[in-house]
Amino acid sequence: MSSETFHWSCKHTWSRSAKNTSWCLLGCSIGDFGTILFFQLTQIPFPVLAIMTLAIINGIITSIILETIILLRQNFSFKLAFKTSVGMSLISMISMEIAMNLTDYLLTGGAILTWWVVPIMLAAGFVTPWPYNYWRLKRFNEACH
Fold it and tell me: How many domains are contained in the chain?
């Protein structure tokens, strides 16, 4: 596809990229929220930045695991499923994780899950990589699912 024919108005691509972004968000949220919740419940004295860094790393790991499982269920070999999960979604996952944790930090001071901050974190985590996922899908017909 040449740059002259690329456009941002394809409803089908927005829909498919939203689905892909949602799967990524689910995977990232499991590790991210799980890590923050662990430190919140155990009250282990650990610096906020360290907790948030661990949350980002764990979110990326759980997202890769979830996406690999999804691809395995679509009859990908393990090697190809893992490679696709890591290669296609890493930029999406990193931007998603940074957006979620930055939102948490700005609204609560960081590493605190409350009933009102979680939906805002999820919204920030979704909208941040969604245009990239659309572009990647439209430009290269490449998706992680």
Answer: 1
